[in-house]
Design a protein that fits this description.
mainly alpha; 12 helices; Endonuclease III, domain 1; 206 residues; Endonuclease Iii, domain 2
């Protein structure tokens, strides 16, 4: 099967199974999304959605968050992995947004990736889901599935993002990234997986 044909068939399965995938992280604007995505590193979306309501009830703007002591932020997010580092990043980036961006989350990669705790994947999610820019955020799950399905060499997430962008139409990137995540959770787990029974691995695995 040609790679392009395989990609089209995979996309058809994803569209059939998850025609309207929701954004997994609860948020109300670009700032709360930025914080939620930052918290999701080495932490499940479910766990993030459990801790953010209380955190955002305390502070849901950069101005309010910058006033919250780091130790108090830690208390809200303690059940998330790497919480001391994340609490410092949340406090610091809130102050930077106030000082350098008028209290607004910048809508460009360069400024987003300069913020503490914000890497390319986090910036891509914010650009895609908060601002509607075409992006293909690649987390460890998408990276794993792209390699498993033979869509990428899987050398690193940068290469995987490049490979996936080359295979799929730009207009589909934002939706596809969510579809792959949901598909992986339900049908294509990292462990205990039977490829022959998977709606995609059954034909896509090299």
């Amino acid at each position: 099967m040609k790679l392009q044909d395989k990609a089209a068939r995979i996309q058809a399965v994803l569209e059939e199974r998850f025609p309207d995938p929701p954004i997994a992280l609860d948020h109300s604007d670009a700032f709360t999304l930025l914080i939620a995505v930052l918290l999701s590193a080495q932490c499940t979306d479910k766990r993030v959605n459990m801790v953010t309501p209380a955190l955002f009830a305390r502070a849901r703007t950069p101005e309010a968050m910058a006033q919250v002591p780091v130790e108090e932020i830690e208390g809200f997010i303690r059940s998330c992995g790497l919480y001391p580092r994340k609490a410092k990043a949340i406090s610091a980036l809130s102050q930077i947004l106030i000082n350098d961006h008028g209290g607004q989350v910048p809508a460009n990669y360069e400024d987003l990736e300069k913020l503490p705790g914000v890497g390319h994947k986090t910036a891509s999610v914010v650009m895609s889901q908060a601002f509607g820019f075409a992006a293909f955020p690649v987390d460890t799950h998408i990276h794993r599935l792209a390699e498993r399905w033979g869509l990428s060499t899987g050398q690193d997430v940068v290469q995987t993002e490049r490979d996936l962008k080359a295979l799929f139409a730009e207009s589909s990137w934002n939706k596809l990234h969510l579809q792959i995540i949901y598909f992986g959770r339900e049908y294509c787990p990292a462990r205990g997986h039977v490829p022959a029974l998977c709606p995609i691995c059954s034909f896509a695995s090299p």
